[in-house]
Amino acid sequence: PSLSQPEREGMFHRGAGLNLTSGQYTAPLAGYYAFTTTLHIVRTEPPRKGQGRQGSRLRVLICVQSRCQHNSNLETVSRLESSGDLFTISVTGTLYLQAGQYASVFVDNTAGSPLTVQRGSDFSAVLLGV
């Protein structure tokens, strides 16, 4: 496969499996794929009174076919501290995908204040074997 032209500086993707509009990676072949995402997330508003305490957490998942409630996902949970506005959270693991199935990243925000994914965040998939 050839290297695709980046849409902006510092960005590239190889192969046709990644759809940058939908944020989904569609498996061209059935097999085991190594997935990685690293998200740089900023709190866009200061936490309201009472936030940043117990229950304030950020879950990041890589899910197959958007089925995050099933076992076909990778997940990490991070507690949001009351101090600081920038968080970095990563998920890495292996998932089996059938040809034509897709995987995408989901963020579950229980913090109650708006969050924004920053530039420099990434999502990748590599076929390990069939």
TrEMBL record:
<keyword id="KW-0964">Secreted</keyword>
<feature type="domain" description="C1q">
    <location>
        <begin position="1"/>
        <end position="130"/>
    </location>
</feature>
<keyword id="KW-1015">Disulfide bond</keyword>
<protein>
    <recommendedName>
        <fullName>Erythroferrone</fullName>
    </recommendedName>
</protein>
<keyword id="KW-0372">Hormone</keyword>
<dbReference type="InterPro" id="IPR001073">
    <property type="entry name" value="C1q_dom"/>
</dbReference>
<keyword id="KW-0732">Signal</keyword>
<keyword id="KW-0325">Glycoprotein</keyword>
<dbReference type="GO" id="GO:0046628">
    <property type="term" value="P:positive regulation of insulin receptor signaling pathway"/>
</dbReference>
<dbReference type="GO" id="GO:0005615">
    <property type="term" value="C:extracellular space"/>
</dbReference>
<comment type="similarity">
    <text>Belongs to the adipolin/erythroferrone family.</text>
</comment>
<dbReference type="GO" id="GO:0046326">
    <property type="term" value="P:positive regulation of D-glucose import"/>
</dbReference>
<keyword id="KW-0379">Hydroxylation</keyword>
<dbReference type="GO" id="GO:0005179">
    <property type="term" value="F:hormone activity"/>
</dbReference>
<dbReference type="GO" id="GO:0045721">
    <property type="term" value="P:negative regulation of gluconeogenesis"/>
</dbReference>
<dbReference type="InterPro" id="IPR008983">
    <property type="entry name" value="Tumour_necrosis_fac-like_dom"/>
</dbReference>
<dbReference type="InterPro" id="IPR052136">
    <property type="entry name" value="Adipolin/Erythroferrone-rel"/>
</dbReference>
